[in-house]
Amino acid sequence: MTASSETQRGTGTAALFALAVFLFVLTFSISLPIYIRPFYYAHIEALDLPRTSGFSADQIREAYDQVLDYLTIPGRGFGTGDMAWSESGKAHFEDCRVLFNLNAAVLMSSAVCILVLLGLRRMGRIGPLRLGRRSAAAWGALAMLTVVTLVAVLAAMDFNRAFVVFHGIFFPGKDNWVFNGYQDQIIRVLPQQFFMNCAIFIGTGLLGQCAAILIPEFCRKKDKEASL
Protein backbone atom coordinates (compact mmCIF):
# COMPACT_ATOMS: atom_id res chain seq x y z
CA MET A 1 0.00 0.00 0.00
CA THR A 2 1.36 3.41 -0.98
CA ALA A 3 1.85 6.26 1.46
CA SER A 4 -0.93 8.22 -0.27
CA SER A 5 -3.48 5.42 0.06
CA GLU A 6 -2.41 4.84 3.67
CA THR A 7 -3.00 8.53 4.41
CA GLN A 8 -6.42 8.42 2.72
CA ARG A 9 -7.34 5.34 4.73
CA GLY A 10 -6.28 7.05 7.96
CA THR A 11 -8.27 10.16 7.07
CA GLY A 12 -11.32 8.06 6.28
CA THR A 13 -11.08 6.22 9.60
CA ALA A 14 -10.72 9.50 11.51
CA ALA A 15 -13.70 10.99 9.64
CA LEU A 16 -15.75 7.91 10.54
CA PHE A 17 -14.78 8.36 14.19
CA ALA A 18 -15.78 12.05 14.06
CA LEU A 19 -19.16 11.09 12.58
CA ALA A 20 -19.67 8.41 15.24
CA VAL A 21 -18.92 10.94 17.99
CA PHE A 22 -21.35 13.42 16.42
CA LEU A 23 -24.13 10.83 16.24
CA PHE A 24 -23.46 9.47 19.73
CA VAL A 25 -23.56 12.92 21.32
CA LEU A 26 -26.81 13.69 19.48
CA THR A 27 -28.65 10.45 20.18
CA PHE A 28 -27.44 10.16 23.78
CA SER A 29 -28.74 13.67 24.49
CA ILE A 30 -32.09 12.92 22.83
CA SER A 31 -32.34 9.82 25.02
CA LEU A 32 -32.08 11.81 28.25
CA PRO A 33 -35.71 13.04 28.52
CA ILE A 34 -36.94 9.75 27.02
CA TYR A 35 -35.40 7.35 29.52
CA ILE A 36 -35.12 9.56 32.61
CA ARG A 37 -38.79 9.44 33.52
CA PRO A 38 -38.45 11.42 36.78
CA PHE A 39 -37.77 14.38 34.49
CA TYR A 40 -41.41 14.21 33.39
CA TYR A 41 -42.72 13.32 36.84
CA ALA A 42 -41.25 16.56 38.17
CA HIS A 43 -43.48 18.47 35.74
CA ILE A 44 -46.72 17.00 37.10
CA GLU A 45 -46.82 19.26 40.14
CA ALA A 46 -44.60 22.01 38.76
CA LEU A 47 -47.02 22.65 35.87
CA ASP A 48 -50.08 21.89 38.02
CA LEU A 49 -51.18 19.19 35.58
CA PRO A 50 -53.79 17.58 37.88
CA ARG A 51 -55.74 20.85 37.98
CA THR A 52 -55.38 21.74 34.31
CA SER A 53 -56.04 18.22 33.00
CA GLY A 54 -58.68 16.93 35.40
CA PHE A 55 -56.68 13.78 36.13
CA SER A 56 -54.92 12.82 39.34
CA ALA A 57 -51.15 12.68 39.60
CA ASP A 58 -51.29 8.86 39.72
CA GLN A 59 -53.45 8.73 36.58
CA ILE A 60 -51.07 11.07 34.79
CA ARG A 61 -48.02 9.04 35.76
CA GLU A 62 -49.71 5.79 34.72
CA ALA A 63 -50.72 7.21 31.33
CA TYR A 64 -47.24 8.59 30.67
CA ASP A 65 -45.60 5.31 31.65
CA GLN A 66 -47.85 3.31 29.33
CA VAL A 67 -47.07 5.61 26.40
CA LEU A 68 -43.32 5.52 27.09
CA ASP A 69 -43.39 1.74 27.50
CA TYR A 70 -45.05 1.51 24.09
CA LEU A 71 -42.47 3.82 22.56
CA THR A 72 -39.37 2.21 24.05
CA ILE A 73 -40.07 -1.43 24.94
CA PRO A 74 -40.57 -3.91 22.07
CA GLY A 75 -43.85 -5.82 22.18
CA ARG A 76 -45.70 -3.43 24.48
CA GLY A 77 -49.25 -2.54 23.44
CA PHE A 78 -50.48 1.02 23.20
CA GLY A 79 -52.42 2.57 26.06
CA THR A 80 -52.92 5.80 27.97
CA GLY A 81 -54.24 4.54 31.30
CA ASP A 82 -57.62 6.06 32.14
CA MET A 83 -57.34 8.63 29.36
CA ALA A 84 -59.26 8.38 26.09
CA TRP A 85 -57.37 7.97 22.84
CA SER A 86 -58.23 7.85 19.14
CA GLU A 87 -56.88 5.78 16.26
CA SER A 88 -55.41 8.97 14.81
CA GLY A 89 -53.58 9.66 18.06
CA LYS A 90 -52.35 6.09 18.24
CA ALA A 91 -51.07 6.37 14.65
CA HIS A 92 -48.97 9.37 15.64
CA PHE A 93 -47.40 7.45 18.50
CA GLU A 94 -46.67 4.62 16.08
CA ASP A 95 -44.71 7.13 13.99
CA CYS A 96 -42.95 8.33 17.14
CA ARG A 97 -42.02 4.75 18.02
CA VAL A 98 -40.22 4.42 14.68
CA LEU A 99 -38.17 7.54 15.48
CA PHE A 100 -37.46 6.38 19.04
CA ASN A 101 -36.26 3.00 17.76
CA LEU A 102 -34.11 4.74 15.14
CA ASN A 103 -32.55 6.94 17.81
CA ALA A 104 -31.78 3.89 19.99
CA ALA A 105 -30.30 2.02 17.03
CA VAL A 106 -28.05 4.92 16.04
CA LEU A 107 -27.00 5.42 19.67
CA MET A 108 -25.92 1.80 20.04
CA SER A 109 -24.29 1.64 16.60
CA SER A 110 -22.28 4.83 17.14
CA ALA A 111 -21.19 3.65 20.59
CA VAL A 112 -19.99 0.33 19.15
CA CYS A 113 -18.16 2.14 16.34
CA ILE A 114 -16.40 4.43 18.83
CA LEU A 115 -15.36 1.52 21.06
CA VAL A 116 -14.12 -0.58 18.14
CA LEU A 117 -12.03 2.25 16.67
CA LEU A 118 -10.58 3.15 20.07
CA GLY A 119 -9.74 -0.52 20.62
CA LEU A 120 -8.03 -0.77 17.23
CA ARG A 121 -6.10 2.39 17.96
CA ARG A 122 -4.97 1.06 21.33
CA MET A 123 -3.76 -2.15 19.67
CA GLY A 124 -1.86 -0.15 17.07
CA ARG A 125 -3.95 -1.48 14.20
CA ILE A 126 -4.85 2.01 13.00
CA GLY A 127 -3.12 5.38 13.19
CA PRO A 128 -4.03 8.42 15.32
CA LEU A 129 -7.69 9.40 15.11
CA ARG A 130 -6.92 12.96 14.06
CA LEU A 131 -7.96 15.30 11.27
CA GLY A 132 -5.36 18.00 10.81
CA ARG A 133 -4.35 19.63 14.06
CA ARG A 134 -7.33 18.40 16.08
CA SER A 135 -8.59 15.03 17.20
CA ALA A 136 -11.44 13.50 15.26
CA ALA A 137 -13.57 13.60 18.42
CA ALA A 138 -13.03 17.37 18.66
CA TRP A 139 -14.21 17.82 15.07
CA GLY A 140 -17.33 15.81 15.85
CA ALA A 141 -18.00 17.96 18.91
CA LEU A 142 -17.37 21.20 17.01
CA ALA A 143 -19.81 20.12 14.28
CA MET A 144 -22.40 19.39 16.95
CA LEU A 145 -21.85 22.78 18.60
CA THR A 146 -22.47 24.45 15.25
CA VAL A 147 -25.75 22.59 14.80
CA VAL A 148 -26.83 23.24 18.41
CA THR A 149 -26.15 26.94 18.08
CA LEU A 150 -28.15 27.21 14.86
CA VAL A 151 -31.12 25.27 16.22
CA ALA A 152 -31.06 27.15 19.54
CA VAL A 153 -31.13 30.52 17.79
CA LEU A 154 -34.06 29.49 15.59
CA ALA A 155 -35.97 28.00 18.54
CA ALA A 156 -35.34 31.07 20.70
CA MET A 157 -36.69 33.33 17.97
CA ASP A 158 -40.00 31.44 17.72
CA PHE A 159 -40.39 28.13 19.54
CA ASN A 160 -43.92 27.61 18.25
CA ARG A 161 -42.73 27.92 14.67
CA ALA A 162 -39.74 25.66 15.37
CA PHE A 163 -42.14 23.10 16.89
CA VAL A 164 -44.27 23.10 13.74
CA VAL A 165 -41.23 22.88 11.45
CA PHE A 166 -39.87 19.97 13.49
CA HIS A 167 -43.07 18.00 13.00
CA GLY A 168 -43.19 18.93 9.33
CA ILE A 169 -39.71 17.46 8.87
CA PHE A 170 -40.14 14.26 10.86
CA PHE A 171 -43.82 13.61 10.09
CA PRO A 172 -44.10 14.79 6.48
CA GLY A 173 -47.60 15.01 5.03
CA LYS A 174 -49.27 14.21 8.36
CA ASP A 175 -51.30 16.32 10.75
CA ASN A 176 -52.26 13.67 13.32
CA TRP A 177 -49.72 15.21 15.70
CA VAL A 178 -52.26 18.01 16.24
CA PHE A 179 -54.24 16.36 19.02
CA ASN A 180 -57.82 16.97 20.11
CA GLY A 181 -57.83 17.20 23.89
CA TYR A 182 -61.20 15.43 24.12
CA GLN A 183 -60.37 12.53 21.83
CA ASP A 184 -56.73 12.13 22.89
CA GLN A 185 -56.64 13.22 26.50
CA ILE A 186 -52.93 12.44 26.88
CA ILE A 187 -52.20 15.79 25.24
CA ARG A 188 -53.68 17.52 28.29
CA VAL A 189 -50.72 16.31 30.33
CA LEU A 190 -48.10 17.00 27.64
CA PRO A 191 -48.13 20.80 27.48
CA GLN A 192 -45.82 22.74 25.23
CA GLN A 193 -43.81 23.89 28.24
CA PHE A 194 -42.81 20.28 28.84
CA PHE A 195 -41.54 19.92 25.28
CA MET A 196 -39.67 23.19 25.61
CA ASN A 197 -38.01 21.88 28.76
CA CYS A 198 -37.17 18.65 26.91
CA ALA A 199 -35.40 20.76 24.28
CA ILE A 200 -33.46 22.55 27.02
CA PHE A 201 -32.56 19.21 28.64
CA ILE A 202 -31.34 17.84 25.31
CA GLY A 203 -29.39 21.02 24.62
CA THR A 204 -27.77 20.86 28.05
CA GLY A 205 -26.75 17.25 27.39
CA LEU A 206 -25.27 18.21 24.04
CA LEU A 207 -23.29 21.10 25.48
CA GLY A 208 -22.08 19.03 28.43
CA GLN A 209 -20.75 16.26 26.21
CA CYS A 210 -19.14 18.71 23.79
CA ALA A 211 -17.47 20.49 26.69
CA ALA A 212 -16.18 17.16 28.04
CA ILE A 213 -14.54 16.51 24.67
CA LEU A 214 -13.31 19.99 23.78
CA ILE A 215 -12.00 21.35 27.10
CA PRO A 216 -9.30 18.62 27.50
CA GLU A 217 -8.48 19.03 23.80
CA PHE A 218 -7.78 22.75 24.10
CA CYS A 219 -6.02 22.34 27.44
CA ARG A 220 -3.62 19.83 25.89
CA LYS A 221 -3.02 22.22 23.00
CA LYS A 222 -2.20 25.08 25.38
CA ASP A 223 0.15 22.88 27.40
CA LYS A 224 1.93 21.80 24.23
CA GLU A 225 2.29 25.42 23.06
CA ALA A 226 3.57 26.48 26.49
CA SER A 227 6.27 23.81 26.38
CA LEU A 228 7.65 25.04 23.04
Describe what is shown at a glance:
This protein is an all-alpha fold and about 230 residues long.
Give a description of the structure.
- This protein is mainly alpha-helical and 228 residues long.
- It has one domain.
- It is 74% helix and 2% strand.
- The chain is built from 8 helices and 2 strands; from the N terminus they run αααααββααα.
- A two-stranded antiparallel ribbon has the order 1-2.
- The protein is elongated and about 60 Å long.
The strand line-up of the biggest sheet is: 1-2
Secondary-structure class: mainly alpha
Count of discrete domains: 1
Cα-to-Cα separation, first versus last residue = 35 Å
Oligomeric nature of the chains: single chain
Mean pLDDT: 90
What labels describe this entry?
2% strand; elongated; 74% helix; 228 residues; single chain; 8 helices; two-stranded antiparallel sheet; mainly alpha; 2 strands
Task: Explain the layout of strands and helices.
Blueprint: H1 3-35, H2 38-46, H3 49-53, H4 57-72, H5 87-122, E1 130-131, E2 134-135, H6 136-157, H7 159-170, H8 192-227
